[in-house]
Design a protein that fits this description.
The protein is of the alpha/beta class and about 800 residues long. The chain is built from 24 helices and 23 strands. A hairpin with a 2-residue loop joins strand 17 and strand 18. The N terminus is likely disordered.
Length: about 800
């Protein structure tokens, strides 16, 4: 969390105490990593992980672990022989003049080299990923040549191959033939012995590298020869018949010659292998490092660790969603969740004072801060968000747990003071110190004042500290002292249980009375405790803090409700604005559509009337012709009423010009909603002003097509019902019934539907509240009796709407 320019005097100061790894739980972290190791050498190396004070070294070490984690995620894993030290020892012997490595020793090296070569190939095929790791294990050469050397000498079981040399192969052939001849001779003797009952059920065997017959002891004189051995029971004697002496001697000579040849092969192989001893030694050291990194990577993946960001100053450091790794593993194994820790220093502050209830998580928070810092400076990724920020210290001092010493006759408080003495003598601006329950173990009145004096001196040294306490005077001192900040562990007053959440910037109550009440202490005792004067001041302070906490929770709850209502309100306002904008944008278009449609109807009506008058005149008011003309006029009137019924308008596909630039002033065009043609008067920004008869309007060019007929529709003088037109212009095809009572709503719908039918509106929309659905049912019942059907029902979260269509 904090690093300044390195100072030789500071670098001599070690972490305190010597048992710091055990106090923080880092020894358990080491054990977890060791359990993931494959080799003894890697386990031994992990035992002495160094505490680093240089960012470059820390970053490189962490990156190597992360690179191995990523390699494991890709499915690639290394293989390691069990005893690399023995491999080194055997390889070292090859340098001695005339040295001979036996078959099992060469077999050990052979298997080790196969693992080394596999790992070598994995590393080299992942160079782009293992950037930092290559600095640690790079610079090696393939071991294919020494592997082939041993493959020529040893078989899959580690024995010398029969063709390891031409001479050895020839000796094998001779021995095989000699054994065949000798067995043939012995078999003849053995068959005779079995026939006469001198031999048992066993077969010809070998004793002292010579073929012999198993003969029953009482018949030994029946087979003249040399007795080489007897059975454990003494029943059989293993006799070499005299006739086989010479053949067995020749066979033994061949075996001796074979043995010498094998020695020559082993000596030669050992000598050749010595040329690769140094390279094999490098692979041994490299594989120890790979085993160490693999074990660290496995542990890091198990705890979800990552590399935090590095910052120079401690007051820029921050822990975000951090976990104590050991607690995380324990709770995960029991399918329980761990509460993450969030912690930071305010700018220019050097000390954080943590308060709160017993068993509320103060100590575990302190240990988490210390352990993660120690892991980070040991080159290990930490279980926290990668957005966390860490700086670096030259030394970490801790006073956590009971330091009572029987050997030195020290009480807990005396041991605690000895630690404080060391802190005061050796701390500086490069030191992080962690103290749990400062001042405990003696008279609270005296202990708290000594504690404050110690902290004041540590503050003057600008050492960086995190301290837990129950003392009210220290909380007050922290609130009024520059460079110090309070923090508290939160407590659930409703359920009387700790939340294990660290909240910065505020002092916490010990909740002593609440905790005592939870465990079942008699209420009369608690009441009496409040009355005792010497504790009253502290209890009053705790009660104030507890009340503060309660009010804070209520305020947070109220704020959450207000925020939620604000969101709903903003949503409704946005819906209203969108609806208003939609109405405004469509209003003029609807009016223009109505004007054009009215104009078309009037033009058609005038034409029909003029045609009827003309027919009557031409026929000189003849009754039959006049009657026929009137019938035609009535039929046309009925057709107009039919065509005014609502219909669904579907977009037509146009024969649009390939380019909008094809539209020009004077072009005759058609819009998919208009039957008549219009002429373009002017074009601006993708819009065209078009005249349809006596009506001018702006329409998007994308909604136009070139008219198939270029004949313009001539403007005609038209007369029409002004009231009807105004009603059509002002009519809205959408009605909002939210908040209206059922009977009033039905009456409103009646008038609205009457206007809609009279004006020929073809699609309608009704908006109603969700509620219990009563209004929706009334509306649906009304619609069934009016010749209207519902074609859709849409849910808009806080309200619903239904879209309607007139039945033809």
């Amino acid at each position: 969390m904090h690093m300044r320019n390195k100072d030789s005097n500071y670098s001599k100061v070690t972490n305190y105490p010597n048992s710091i790894q055990q106090k923080l739980g880092f020894d358990k972290v080491i054990e977890f990593i060791q359990s993931a190791c494959s080799t003894i050498e890697a386990k031994n190396q992990i035992e002495s992980i160094p505490f680093l004070r240089n960012f470059k070294h820390i970053h490189s070490s962490i990156r190597q672990v992360i690179e191995l984690s990523m390699l494991h995620e890709s499915g690639a894993y290394f293989e390691f022989p069990e005893n690399l030290s023995l491999v080194l020892e055997e390889i070292g012997r090859t340098h001695k003049s005339g040295a001979i490595l036996l078959e099992d020793e060469l077999f050990l090296i052979q298997n080790a080299m196969l693992c080394f070569e596999t790992n070598f190939q994995i590393v080299n095929s992942n160079k782009d990923l293992l950037i930092e790791t290559m600095d640690l294990v790079g610079g090696l050469n393939s071991l294919q040549v020494p592997i082939q050397l041993l493959n020529r000498t040893l078989d899959d079981e580690g024995n010398i191959k029969i063709n390891a040399s031409p001479k050895l192969f020839e000796l094998h052939k001779k021995i095989s033939l000699k054994e065949k001849d000798l067995r043939k001779l012995l078999q003849s003797k053995f068959d005779t012995a079995k026939k006469n009952g001198w031999a048992g059920d066993t077969e010809i065997t070998i004793r002292n590298e010579r073929l012999v017959l198993p003969i029953i002891a009482e018949h030994k004189k029946k087979i003249p020869g040399f007795v080489h051995d007897d059975s454990q029971s003494g029943k059989f004697l293993y006799i070499e018949p005299i006739e086989c002496f010479e053949e067995n001697n020749q066979l033994k000579e061949l075996f001796l010659e074979k043995k010498k040849e094998i020695e020559n092969i082993l000596r030669q192989t050992t000598s050749e292998l010595s040329n690769f001893a140094d390279e094999i030694g490098k692979h041994v050291q490299s594989n120890i490092q790979l085993d160490v990194l693999s074990a660290k990577a496995k542990f890091s993946r198990k705890i979800g660790a990552s590399e935090p960001q590095f910052v120079e100053k401690h007051d820029s450091s921050e822990l975000i969603n951090a976990y104590h790794p050991l607690l995380l593993l324990l709770l995960n194994s029991n399918n329980k969740k761990t509460v993450p820790l969030n912690f930071y220093f305010q700018k220019d502050n050097y000390l954080v004072l943590i308060s709160g209830p017993n068993a509320g998580g103060k100590s575990i928070a302190l240990k988490t801060i210390g352990l993660l810092q120690y892991m980070y400076q040991s080159g290990l990724p930490i279980p926290a968000s990668p957005d966390s920020k860490f700086s670096i210290y030259n030394s970490i001092f801790i006073d956590i747990g009971d330091n009572q010493s029987i050997e030195n006759n020290l009480s807990s408080y005396s041991s605690h003071l000895m630690s404080m003495k060391y802190f005061l003598e050796h701390s500086n601006g490069h030191t992080l110190y962690l103290i749990d329950e400062l001042g405990n173990g003696t008279d609270p009145a005296i202990g708290s004042t000594i504690a404050q004096a110690i902290l004041e001196l540590m503050l003057s040294k600008k050492s960086i500290g995190v301290v837990t306490t129950h003392f009210g005077n220290l909380k007050a001192w922290a609130s009024n002292t520059i460079g110090v900040q309070n923090a508290r562990m939160l407590y659930d007053l409703k359920h009387l249980e700790p939340l294990f959440i660290l909240e910065p910037d505020k002092p916490g109550s010990s909740f002593a009375l609440e905790v005592a009440s939870k465990v079942g202490i008699d209420p009369s005792i608690l009441k009496r405790a409040k009355q005792i004067s010497k504790w009253k001041q502290q209890i009053d302070l705790d009660e104030l803090l507890a009340e503060n906490e309660k009010q804070k929770k209520e305020l947070e709850s109220s704020k959450a409700r207000i925020d939620e209502r604000e969101k709903v309100l903003q949503h409704l306002i946005q819906e209203y604005e969108n609806l208003k904008e939609s109405v405004q944008s469509n209003k003029q278009h609807i009016i223009n559509e109505a004007k054009i449609k009215a104009n078309e109807i009037l033009n058609q009506t005038n034409q029909k009337i003029e045609q009827t008058i003309k027919e009557i005149k031409e026929n000189k008011a003849e009754k039959v012709k006049t009657k026929t003309s009137r019938q035609n006029l009535n039929t046309f009137k009925d057709e107009l009423q039919i065509t005014n019924k609502p219909v669904i308008v579907q977009n037509k596909k146009f024969n649009k010009p390939k380019n909008i630039s094809d539209f020009k002033v004077g072009s005759i065009v058609k819009h998919y909603t208009h039957k008549s043609n219009g002429e373009i008067l002017q074009i601006k920004k993708g819009q065209a002003q078009i005249v349809f008869g006596d009506i001018k309007m702006w329409l998007p060019l994308n909604d136009l097509e070139i008219a198939l007929s270029v004949e313009k529709q001539k403007a005609k003088t038209a007369t029409f019902n002004v009231d009807q037109f105004n009603k059509q212009s002002n009519f809205k095809p959408e009605i909002d019934l939210r908040g209206i009572r059922g009977e009033d709503a039905i009456e409103t719908i009646d008038n609205w539907l009457l206007d809609a039918k009279h004006l020929g509106m073809y699609t309608l929309r009704i908006i109603h509240g969700r509620g219990f659905g009563i209004l929706r049912k009334l509306i649906q019942q009304k619609l069934k009796s009016t010749g209207i059907r519902q074609i859709s029902n849409m849910n808009r979260n806080s309200w619903e709407e239904m879209e309607l269509l007139w039945l033809s």
